[in-house]
Design the sequence.
DNA sequence: CGCCAGGTTGATTTCGCTCAAGCAATGTGG
DNA sequence: CCACATTGCTTGAGCGAAATCAACCTGGCG
C-alpha cells in the first residue's frame, strides 16, 4: 500500500519536449518536425511527491509516462496479496508502455519514491505516432526486448543465487546511479526502504536485515540508515563470484 | 545438453506463407500484397527432430523463427551453468524476435521437443517489412508485452508459491494444449521430461518426483510416464487456492 | 507524550537442495 | 544376443537457507 494517495501535486516547472534533455536518451529521440509537435501537444506534466501513486495496477491504461526526473517503483501484486517490486524506473525512462501495447489495464502499480516529475503521453496521440513513424515502434521493441531479457535474468538469479549474492548484485547496480566515489571508498544513498529491497530480491525484510549484518561483520559494506559505505569495491565484486 | 546436434533434417513438406494456416494466428496476419510476397521470399523451412537445436544462446541472431507445427523449449543458461526453461513455444508462435529486436545474440537456446517444422525469416527482410508496415511492429509489441507480463508473473509465482502449487499451475496450463477429456477424468500427455518440468518451475528433478508422489497419495493426479490422469479437475483447482 | 511504521534480533520450523543409491528403459558395440 | 553404458526417474537421509513467529528498538510526528 503506497504511503499516500492524496492528489497533492507540486506545481511542475514549465517543460517542453523541445527542450527536454531526457528526450534524447529516450524512444522519443527518433521524432522530428510534425511528429514532435504532436508529442508536445499530447503531453501533460505532473509532479509527484514521495509515496504518491502514478498509476495503479488494474486501472485502464491512459497512455505512457516519461520520467523527467526522480525515481519510480513498479510493484506487482497477485490475487493472494503477495507483492514484488518488479523494477525501478529512473529519469529518461518510459513507463506503462507494456500496458499500452498489451491492452487491458496496467500490469503493475507505479509509485514515486522521491519527488519526481513525470510527463504523461495520451494514448490516442501515441497510437497515431506509432502508425506514422515505424522507427518509434522499433525503439519501443528494443526497449521491451531488454526489459524481457532483464526479467528472465531475474528469474534465473532468483532460483540460482543466494540472497547475499543477489543483494551484492543490487548494490552494484545502484552504485552507478546513486553512488558517490570518495577516493577508495564508495558511498551510496539508497532510494528505497529495506522492505522495498526485500520485495525487489523476492525475499523478506528480516532476511535483508540479517544479510546486511552478516556482510557488515565481514566488512564488505557498512549501513547507516539509507547510507551505504563500501570500503572496497573489490570485496563487493568478490561476493558475486563465489568460486 | 540437447540429445542430438546432428544436422539431420526430415525433408519438409512444401509450405507457403500464402497457404499457412498458422499465419492467421500470428503477427504476419497483418501482411498483404507485396509485403506478404516479400515474407514468402525471405522464408526458409526446416524440419527438426526431437532434441534438435533450432538456435543456440549467444549465437548471432539470423532472423526470427515461426513454429508451423511442434513444440519448442526455450532454455536460458547463466555464466555459472545454471539453466532454466524459460517457456515453451507452440505452433503459430514466433521465436527469436526478442533477440532480433534487442540486438546482440540469441538470449536463449531453442530446442525442438517433438518433431517440429519451423520457418526462418531472414533479418534483412524483416527489417524492411517493419519499416514499411507499422502495424507489423505493433503486433510484435503486443506479443512482447504479453511475454513480459508472463515473465513477471513467473517471478512472482516463484517467490510466493510452493513447488506443489506451481506444479498444479503448470498442469492446468498444459491441459488446454495437451489434455484430452474422458468424461469426468482428464488425461494429458506431457511434451517434456520431468527434468524439463523442474527447469520450468525453477526447482530440481528430485523435488518434482517427490511432489508428484505427494500429489498421487492425495489422489489429486496420477502419473504414469508422461501420461497424467486427473480424476477431478476440481481437486486440482483446489491446489492453487489453498485457503 | 504516545503512537506507529520501519527496522533489528532471536528462536524455531520448514521447504527444498545436496548427495547418494538403486531401478527401468533404451541404446550400443562386440 | 548379451554385457554394458547412458539417461530418466524415484527414493532416502541429512542439511541448510530462508520463512515464520515474536519481541523489541528507534526515530519521526501528530
Sequence:
Amino acid at each position: 500500500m503506497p504511503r499516500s494517495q492524496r492528489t497533492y501535486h507540486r506545481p511542475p516547472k514549465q517543460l517542453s519536449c523541445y527542450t527536454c534533455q531526457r528526450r534524447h536518451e529516450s524512444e522519443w529521440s527518433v521524432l522530428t518536425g510534425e511528429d514532435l509537435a504532436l508529442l508536445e501537444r499530447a503531453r501533460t506534466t505532473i509532479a509527484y511527491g514521495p509515496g504518491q501513486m502514478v498509476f495503479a495496477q488494474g486501472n485502464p491504461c491512459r497512455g505512457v509516462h516519461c520520467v523527467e526526473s526522480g525515481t519510480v517503483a513498479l510493484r506487482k501484486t497477485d490475487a493472494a496479496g503477495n507483492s514484488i517490486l518488479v523494477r525501478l524506473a529512473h529519469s529518461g525512462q518510459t513507463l506503462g508502455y507494456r500496458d499500452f501495447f498489451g491492452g487491458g489495464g496496467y500490469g503493475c502499480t507505479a509509485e514515486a519514491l522521491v519527488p519526481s516529475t513525470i510527463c504523461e503521453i495520451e494514448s490516442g496521440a501515441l497510437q497515431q505516432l506509432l502508425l506514422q513513424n515505424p522507427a518509434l515502434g522499433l525503439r519501443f521493441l528494443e526497449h521491451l526486448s531488454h526489459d524481457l531479457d532483464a526479467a528472465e535474468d531475474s528469474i534465473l538469479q532468483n532460483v540460482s543465487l543466494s540472497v547475499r549474492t543477489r543483494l551484492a548484485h543490487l548494490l552494484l547496480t545502484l552504485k552507478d546511479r546513486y553512488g558517490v566515489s570518495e577516493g577508495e571508498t564508495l558511498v551510496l544513498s539508497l532510494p528505497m526502504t529495506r522492505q522495498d529491497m526485500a520485495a525487489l530480491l523476492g525475499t523478506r525484510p528480516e532476511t535483508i536485515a540479517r544479510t546486511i549484518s552478516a556482510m557488515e561483520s565481514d566488512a564488505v559494506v557498512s549501513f547507516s540508515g539509507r547510507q551505504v559505505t563500501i570500503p572496497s569495491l573489490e570485496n563487493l565484486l568478490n561476493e558475486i563470484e563465489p568460486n
In short: Residues 31 and 136 of chain A are 7 Å apart (CA to CA).
